[in-house]
Amino acid sequence: MPVLQPIIDIAELLHQKGVSEVIVSPGSRSAPLTLAVARHPHLRVHVVADERSAGFIGLGIAQQSQTPVALICTSGSAVYNLAPAVAEAFFQQVPLLVFTADRPHEWLHQQDGQTIDQPYIYRTHVKRSYDLPADYSHADTRWFIERSINEAVSFSQLSPAGPVHINVPLREPFYPADTDTFQYGPVRTIDVCPTQPTLPNDVWHKLLTEWERSERILIAVGQVPYTPALRTILGKLSEEFGIPVLGEITSNLPGTNQFITHTDTFLAGIDPDVANTLRPELVITLGNSFLTRNLKTFFRQYPAHRHWHIQPSAERIVDSFQSLTTLIPAQPVAFLEKLFADLDYQRFLQGDDEDNESEAGEFLNRWQTADHQAARHVAQTLTEPDQPLTDFSATQCVLDQLPQRSILHLANSMPVRYANLVGLRGDLDVAVFANRGVSGIDGCLSTAVGAALATDQPVTLLIGDVAFFYDRNALWSNPVPANLRIVLLNNDGGHIFRMIDGPSRQPELETYFETPHGYTAQRTAQDAQIAYAVCATLEQLAPLLPDFFQPGPSAKLIEITTDKHANQKQFQKYKSKMAGN
User: What class of enzyme is it (predicted)?
Assistant: First the structure.
């Protein structure tokens, strides 16, 4: 029997608690944890050498499954390299179990290698931290480890979900003898029953009264996972009660005439008189962060009289628009379905109120008209004659040809913003993901790789060159999943800084902000055994995409080279026309 049986029991507990995916970064101190999961017959283990990439690959898998993914790394600086993914998971509310091997604590500050102060290293960026004992001789120690792992797995999934850190000090010997056998189980699992917040009747009737007193009501959706039930109930509320429902590409609302999805265009520099006609009396928000400044600025400058925010728990007050009046701790879909049912029944009892319906219909029409005009404005910008290939036009071309019912990952910086301006066709039924918790570029490629590992659906990543080269260790661990499609917009630098007013006016723009690099992805693709194509004109791009999106034996990468000055000129033309409207 191996000396480190409690570590073997951790692997069995993960399996019994429903964890099936583990990301391992090789190391010696972590060997007992690695061997425990690698030899377990029911755990799927992925080996990723770079801990920073490993963390984001785990995040990508967890985004798809909405269940915890375990990360395992060795001691020392490896632990810090997981921090960016841990922070993103915390603010995006994605469950991760972060197992960090450690030396016994008495060796801290004793000039021993790979030894840093690891307990509670992630501080407020994890939901909870556990520091396991290094010695297992007492029965209470094993009871404590078992109880802690049970709690950690359950707690990572309780609303709001998020990462949990388990620090594991380990003594030598790390490796079992040839005669040692691994015994998985029996272990004791402790289930935590889920709860559903229920609003008291008097609170519910107070909310219904506020709704009835509000003639102009609007629902704004932040970043949420692809949720058909949410789309359905939002559509019913909009259709039956004349409610504008607005969101962005990360809200996973389909690009139809029903939902408002071009706010970044028509809310930019909006005339105050027009703004007041769009100002709601009651705004209801749900989901995580909003992508664009224009949307947030509008609701801060023209706040609603009443603002409800729906979120699964009351752990924190989220007041993005600085106008919150009521925090509603509830699952958004359940709350909105009950709200619709009660309002529908109340309207049946009272009969139709034509005055209220007329006002609501006019309010909805104003928002929809502005949205349709904005969509035409974007389309006109991208269809002017003799346009060169730009990041903007390339994004539209790619998004229009995405496979139906596929997955789209949007990298941060300009790709997610271009995609939001263009929007998605509603008939494609594409699920959109983006790392908008912390909104960094460090891990966008790795997260998409994780998503492709977790599903058989096609996964397309739209990414800029700086984000791609910054994270190309994501492609280090072969094989790269064959269902991954990478669309690389290469304009040779940090293109976003040319679009922002501040840095774009500085003489140091290119050297200190854009940082031109001169790299292409050809050799990276060769090293990773990815099918590679490159194009520099719209005429070349459109014919390449059908074959690019076809299933094949390997992942594929298409590198779209654009000129940063042409990108800037087109985007400035778009903004100047937008201001003219």
Answer: transferase
